[in-house]
Amino acid sequence: MLGGVTPPDSPTADVPPDLLLTDVTVGDRPGRAVHVAGGRITWIGAAADAPRAGQVMAGEGALLTPAFVDAHVHATATGLALTGLDLHSRSSLADAVAAVAEAVRTAPPGILLGTGWDETGWPEGRGLTRADLDAVVGDRPAYLARVDVHSATVSTALLDLVPGIRDLPGASPDGQLRLDAHHAARQAAYGAVTAQQRAAAQAATLAEAARLGIGSLHEMAGPEVSSAEDLRALLVLARERPGPRVAGYWGELAERGGLELVRELGLAGAGGDLFCDGAFGSHTAALSAAYRDRPGTAGALRFATAQLVEHVRACTAAGVQAGFHCIGDAAVGQVLDAVGAVVAELGLPAVRACRHRLEHVEMAGAEAVERMRAWGMVASVQPAFDATWGGPSGMYAERLGADRAAACNPFADLADAGVALALGSDAPVTPMDPWGGVHAAVDHRTAGAGLRPFDAFDAATHGGWHAIGAETAAGPLAPGAPADLALWDTDATLSAVLDRRLRPGCRQLVVAGTPVRSL
Ligand SMILES: [Zn+2]
pLDDT tens digits, residue range 346-384? Predict the structure, then answer.
């Protein structure tokens, strides 16, 4: 059992002895019943033949599916966005500044955090600057992440919290920080969040996940995006009350002690957002050829290949899954070179057994796809990225040109090659929205690059369990599987929901056999 997840066979005291969900539509079959006990599915069949149970839930014909797994989430930042300043919908610079001013008036004292601003459609033709912020936040530290969260604008008071930040790569006098300066500012900003702010944010994320029918989250923690304290608190919160499970990842190189926390907290893997490059929006994803709209720039690799080899070697030798954030083709290629070096050294079976995973993997050509297949790797992908930034006039096309943009997020190539896929949101980069993710994976903005509907649904459910090495051989809705189920506000079959691109609300989430009341 990979850790961070509460094992289904060690239920908490709240788990009822058994539960029968009856008169439900399972997949495309109405009139079914599902019996669960000990946190697992024990029986599926016709409702008329169902065994008795201590607790019965009448589905009234509603669709029952495995609960979703969101395989890439930042719980605290997502919760801070849910409870805090969300600039995603601001359509001008003036509108964004007005929202910041309003937050200053209404938010409790302390650091002001916000996320989601995107200047690409703003009439002013520029993004937020430090001067814009200082004018409304005064002497309060403020950190406002751009929509891709790989750059941010900060106030002067936040800069003052980080000695030397003005000399780091990526620093800019206008307060729009990238690269190392951005990482330092983000660390200071989240370091300034109080334990109370953090706990409220994490609880808000778990409640929102439950509301959406998400039974498990993969939390992508790390020293640059959160902290060990943050991760530890989230795992405790998820364990101590009924609600979505959390599988934790910690993105720090083994040579810097990253594996120690994996062992201490029983995490699912050593990596996740172990940043091997940045993102397209901020021109920091590492490319093999320059950006179209910034010809002098091809992004940057953050590590030497030898460092990645050492990480994969240490993880493989320890039987621990490694994971990497890699977006541009140069970063994807570098990580795969490192995995290949360890395949040569420790052998294919040892590497395949770890199921090393790549996050985002947005530029993967035929060679990369073939290497991922051969080495038994997992592609953790975010279909909403394509929905948001793909297409002939989207941000990918602006940054990369039409040809390279059309090849981004090659879901069909990965699936057809037999590479295991897990879908995620990267919330708060895009909101948790599991049905939206499934539909976006099918309706890829590039013709022919999307997934078949049932494959997309499988990648959004079973794929997440496979990605942490905890899937059951018979699949997610079969006797023996963890009883993580979602009952939906529709009596349509799963085929119809997928065909008609419906997004039914979740009527009831069940995690490890326990009905999760509204949190
Ligand atoms: Zn992430």
Answer: 999 999 999 999 999 999 999 999 999 999 999 999 999
Q: What is the DSSP letter of 452?
A: P
Q: Are 113 and 143 in contact (CB under 8 A)?
A: yes
- In the reported structure, the alpha carbon of residue 19 is separated from the centroid of ligand 1 by a whole-number distance in angstroms of 36
Nearest-angstrom CA–CA distance, 402 and 388? 15
Domains of the chain: 19-61+477-516 (2.30.40.10), 76-192 (3.10.310.70), 195-468 (3.20.20.140)
Question: 214 alpha carbon to ligand 1 midpoint, in Å?
Answer: 18
Q: How far is the CA of 488 from the centre of ligand 1 (A)?
A: 28
Token pair listed for 94: 């003036």
Distance 50 CA to ligand 1 centre (A): 43
Query: For the residues of 294-354, what is the DSSP string, one character each?
Result: STT------S-HHHHHHHHHHHHHHT--BEEEE-SHHHHHHHHHHHHHHHHHH-HHHHHHH
pTM of the model: 0.86
Centroid of ligand 1 to alpha carbon of 89 (angstroms): 21
The number of residues in the chain equals 519
Q: What is the mean pLDDT of residues 22-35?
A: 97
CA 59 to chain CA centroid, nearest Å: 30
Structure tokens at 433: 């929205």
How many Å lie between the centroid of ligand 1 and the Cα of residue 285?
13
Sign of CA dihedral 404, 408, 411, 414: positive
